[in-house]
Structures are given as C-alpha cells and as structure tokens.
Amino acid sequence: MTETTKPRRAQILDSASRLFSERGYHATSMRDLAGDLGMQGGSLYAHISGKEELLIEIVNVASRQFDEALFTLRDVQLPADEKLREAMHRHIRVVADNMDSATVFFHEWKHLSPEAYARVTGWRDSIDAFYRELITRGISEGTFRADLDPRMTAYLVLSAVNWAYTWYRPGGPLTPGDVADSFADMLLGGLRSEIGSTA
Amino acid sequence: MTETTKPRRAQILDSASRLFSERGYHATSMRDLAGDLGMQGGSLYAHISGKEELLIEIVNVASRQFDEALFTLRDVQLPADEKLREAMHRHIRVVADNMDSATVFFHEWKHLSPEAYARVTGWRDSIDAFYRELITRGISEGTFRADLDPRMTAYLVLSAVNWAYTWYRPGGPLTPGDVADSFADMLLGGLRSEIGSTA
DNA sequence: CCTACCGATCGGTAGG
DNA sequence: CCTACCGATCGGTAGG
Questions:
Q1: Which part of the chain engages DNA, per the record (chains A, B) (predicted)?
Q2: pLDDT tens-digit profile of B33-70?
Q3: Which residues does strand D reach (CB under 7 angstroms)?
Q4: Domains of chain B, start order
Q5: Which one of A1, A16, A100, B50 counts the least CB within 10 Å of its CB?
Q6: Closest in A110, A162, A197 to B163, CB measured
Q7: Is-contact B146 B139, C-beta < 8 A?
C-alpha cells in the first residue's frame, strides 16, 4: 500500500533536489516541480503536505548522510592523520554522491522553519566538534603540530571538503577519492618544498 | 543634482545586501526592502529601475573588490609562498569587510540574467587562473613542492578563503589577518609534526 | 516619496 | 492525478 506511493515520493524529492539546487528554493514553484514530473501543480499534494516538507526532507536526508559517514568513524582506532584522511574521503564522497541535495543543504537551510533550522545548526556544530576533537587528539598524540589551533584547523578542513559542492563534477576525471587524497596530502604535508622556504 | 540621490541609492544597496544575504534574493520582496528603509514599495522605483538591478550591482561591486585586491598583486615581485600569503590576506579581507555582499555574491549569482551571469562566471575563472598561475610559478621557482597539481591546489586555497563567508564574524576576536595567517601557516607548512608522520 | 492600482503568479484546496 | 478555483502576494506603474 505504501509501496506504490513511496517511489513517487522519491521521484518528487529527486526533482525537488535538482530544481532547488539549480534555481533555489523560493525561485522554484510547485508548478515547475510538477511540470518536471509531468503532472499538474495540484496533483503534488496527493503525495506531500506542502513545499516546506520537501525542503525539510532534502536537508534531513543530506545531514543524515553526513552523520552516518562521520560518526561511525568516531571510535575507530587510527592515527590522527590517517583518520583525518579517511574522514575527508567520506565527507567528500557524501558531497559528490549528493551534489543536488548538498547544494540545497548549504544554500537553503536558512529558509527552514525555526525548529528545522535549529536541527541543522545543531548538526553543523556536531560536525565541527568531530573535526576539532580529531585535531585535538592528533596534537596530543604528537601526530599534528603542537601549535595548531583546533578550531581554525577544523575550519580549514571543512572549507576544503564542503566547498567541493561548488566545483566538483561527478563523472569527470576525478573521483571523490582522488580529491580527498589530493587535499589530504596538501593539508598534511604542506605546500612548501623542503628547499625553498623563505618565510 | 546627482549628489542627493546617490546616498539614497547607496542606502538601498546596503539594505538589499543585508536582506538578500539573510533571506535570499527571491525571498526578499521589494516591500520588505522598502519597509527596511522606512518607505513604501512603489517609492523604490524613483531610485532604481528594478529588483534585478540591485542584484547585479551588489554582485558587480563585490567582484570589483576581489578584482582590485588580487590583480594589483599580479606583477608584484615576491617569492610564491609570500605572495600566496598576501593574496589570502587580501582575499579574506574582502570577504570579511563585505560579508553581506560576499554572501549574496556566492549564493545568488545563479539568479542573474544570462549576460550578468556570464560576467560572474568569467570573473570566477580569472580568480581561479590567478591562483593557479601563482602556484605554477611557485613550483617552477622551487618554493612549492614539485608534485602539486596547480588546479587542485588553487581549489584548496579558494576553499579556505571563500568558505570564510559562512563562519567569520566581523567584530569577533579574529581579524581577517589572523585568519589569513593561520590558514597560510597551515597550508604552507602542513598539519603534520616532524616526528609523528605515519602515512 | 505616497496612494492606488495592474496583471501575473504564488502555495494550496475542493471535488471529483 | 486533473480541473477549477481560492486569497495572498509578487514586481512594477501611473499620477500626483
């Protein structure tokens, strides 16, 4: 009974993710969305309760993906540098595998109602905390430089993995793993050569 | 004669930058904007030709600031690592000093008409090229590691300086220069300590 | 800069 | 899932 409506709902969410990411939430009308699915505007409401439900669900699915990717890594026993590399792999993979909903997630969450908004803010904080704790442990282990500021370091890592939503193109020459390894190599080892440092 | 209308236009642009960055372009109505300035909706059209003119001007001002900050650095004679640090200083300063219009710039440019859209795309490409050339020169100078991919390196630097629009808070404990130095230190020198490298 | 208004479009609903 | 419709609001204009 719910098995026939579920795929239709999934189709609606896919279309909504794409249109919201391309045009923005407010610039996408319910008639745009219905047209993309070959139906009339009013027909959507047989499957969903309203426009905001779509935004909430897209954002929730995206944040759940980040959650699952990173928090299963929390208690894994690995040196901090390897763990950071693995976290970046997973983080970029979520972005790359969900370009549309990730874009919606990063751009449209401020249009959520207060409760849903607070949930997203909480998620963001917990991701920040995950990276800060990883850095802090790496410093006390001696893997990372002792003079790092965990907060700034976490911002730098998050910049790299999150900003990928603006430029990464799935199906292009780079896999998400290529990107993660390249960024991790540069972040861990630094850009400067051994010989030529001047500052 | 134009001297009395110019400040009013500037006020409208400031309000529009703030409202567009907080609520988004399409979610901000002209009546919201007028109300923020203590006037009626229709009165705005004595000063501007339409809503999109505001978006175009905000985005143009922002991109001009990035242009001026970076392209005056192009022909400065400096080792690549110092030049990269200086570019990051300037780039982050533009973001930090224009949080509202930078946010509009990053989020709302896709709502521009085709011509204005193409201009922004062109600007983005030229900023990318600026950083890629800087990296390439640094590699051939011997300042940067020979195994760097200039394209990926430029993406990493741009991630760091652009993503600041999401978390930086002017008036907080960190100056734009603090952020730039912290990021530049980490990027140039790497996160790993000398002793504890495992990978 | 205001009042009053325009046509268009919005999200959503009723009834089938 | 469609047709037909609702009140509300949109960007913008006319005339003053």
A1: 29-48
A2: 999 999 999 999 999 999 999 999 999 999 999 999 99
A3: A 8, 34, 38-43, 46-47; B 28-32, 41-42, 45, 49-52
A4: 1-48 (1.10.10.60), 52-189 (1.10.357.10)
A5: A1
A6: A162
A7: yes
